[in-house]
Amino acid sequence: MSFEVKVPSVGESVQEGMIHQWHVEEGAYIEVDDVLVELETDKATVEIVAEKSGVVKRLKNEGDVVAIGDTIASIDTSATAPAQTSKAGEDSSSSPEAAATPSANGSAAGTLSPAARKLAEEHGLDPSQIKGTGPKGNILKEDVLKAANEPKQTKAADVTPVKSAKPASKPGAANPGFQAITGSRDIRREKMSMMRRTIARHLVKSQQTAAMLTTFNEVDMTAIFALRKKYKEPFKEKYGVGLGFMGFFLKASVEALKEFPMINAYVDGEEIIHHSYCDVGVAVSSPRGLLVPVVRNVENMSIMNIESSISDIATRARAGKIALDELSGGTFTVSNGGVFGSLMSTPILNSPQSAILGMHKIEKRAVVIGDDIVARPMMYLALSYDHRVVDGKEAVQFLVKIKDGLEDPSRLLLEI
Questions:
Q1: Which is the most buried residue in 82, 143, 148, 397, by most CB within 10 A?
Q2: Are residues 64 and 112 in the same domain?
Q3: Catalytic one among 23, 391, 404, 408?
Q4: Which whole-number Å values give the CA distances from 236 to 224, 251, 311, in the listed order?
């Protein structure tokens, strides 16, 4: 009998995915619950396991885009398991020969989990060169990250000369002073991941459908700096989480959203959808690309709750453990390009939302305070907004409200 392996439903908004990696060879025998394939969607990578034992016939290749419900493989359930070559009760993996033989993933030290294998591929690492610290020498994600951060030493024997796509011209007799161009001129094509395709599609749609404008302001971070310096250690001792900047920015954003609720609304056809809650998306850079997990009901949170929530979702997002429903449904977004050194930018709306706040690099600049010129830690803020919903006056006042709250944090505690 033949059992069809279909693409399961992995989320309400997920309609398709891409075959990322097969874990079994064509014609291989698998057992129930063995991992068959990794499916990459626009939000996460999920594993599809075998529901039946038997011999696998693959119907789709790595890189193929498939829809929910498509058949990607079949399992011949009438096939019998191959005879075991090792003696009963003997663990062949414990023999010296087996220990010295590389496993299917290419590592002689131990096996890789799917997450560790994917991370190793993204960093271009050879699993056999990674030291595993898990049980029986298994390679963990932490081992891959450690290997990725170690300085790479390139041996002369490992360097393969690359033939140029177009030979460099030699100095001609007509132009004796011409200097020949040397070096590789190869090009490489790579399929876009499902996440990158979706990001590209959403960004283009956002620019095509929204009347997007950006307004700027700057905030003096002196008061926040002083507050963090004074209470950073007591805060961590009491709550077990660091006192960062995002807690202040989300708190200030929510207080501004309460005063200007249209910025927390968005257009749906010929209607405007209003929200009585503030679900704030926080842009997080991960190995797979930009993720925007959502912190729910921020309007009811203290700065401690906000910092704890952000720390949790950021850690899980970077580890690929974020749930699909945590990546949808936001009403407002905050993006911090300053962690990468951005001084100023115009963030793109996270459709269908009507506004996104862009944070930037904190830099000491000369500013006038009273009649004095002093150096202060300053940050540029950018608010991109949909002019169909938000008027320019509201957008400017909203950003000023955030600025006032950050420059005088007591306003955030008193909610004024």
A1: 143
A2: no
A3: 391
A4: 16, 19, 13
